[in-house]
Design the sequence.
């Protein structure tokens, strides 16, 4: 089932998400719905707060990028209760966008390497290291479960330049081809 994606300005996007247990209700169905929602919006990552849930869960699938870069083939993962335990390496600036902030892309600085501990969809524990674009995607989605958006990491000048676009998102003035829930919606 395709879920609505909550837009910039909705309070759920600013909440620090809570851990869940293996008996979380309908977890498999939720994960399937999150992947379906992400694919429908042509995304490569989606965090639970973006579909209105304040839980520590996100999904990533880089397969859509594999045609241009085969190294992304087969990278489809579920991250439950993740903790980034280390961020290291050079700071790399790269353009990012977000399904909750449609129509806005900005350059964001992030460390090039991370170590993350998490549970997969079967609640098997993992402790893994990622670099480059893999690390960036994970950091972006991880920020969502911490109540952080990529625009929080851009300069004040850039924020001023996109302020009217952000205000339009808050007011629900958005032309999106996927199902959304503006901040002024009830719930």
Sequence:
């Amino acid at each position: 089932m395709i879920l609505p994606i909550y837009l910039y300005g909705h309070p759920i996007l600013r909440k620090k998400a809570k851990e869940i247990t293996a008996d979380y209700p309908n977890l498999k169905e939720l994960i399937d719905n999150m992947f379906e929602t992400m694919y429908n919006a042509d995304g490569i990552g989606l965090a639970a707060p973006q579909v209105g849930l304040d839980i520590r869960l996100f999904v990533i699938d880089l397969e859509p990028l594999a045609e241009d870069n085969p190294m992304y083939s087969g990278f489809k993962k579920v991250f439950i209760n993740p903790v980034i335990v280390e961020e290291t390496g050079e700071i790399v600036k790269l353009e990012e966008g977000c399904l909750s902030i449609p129509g806005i892309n900005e350059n964001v600085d992030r460390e090039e390497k991370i170590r993350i501990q998490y549970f997969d969809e079967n609640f098997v524990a993992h402790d893994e290291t990622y670099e480059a674009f893999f690390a960036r995607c994970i950091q972006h989605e991880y920020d969502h479960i911490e109540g952080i958006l990529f625009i929080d990491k851009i300069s004040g000048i850039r924020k001023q330049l996109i302020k009217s676009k952000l205000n339009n998102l808050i007011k629900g003035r958005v032309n999106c081809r996927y199902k959304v829930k503006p901040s002024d919606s009830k719930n």
Remarks:
- The mean pLDDT is 96.
- The longest strand covers residues 76-96.
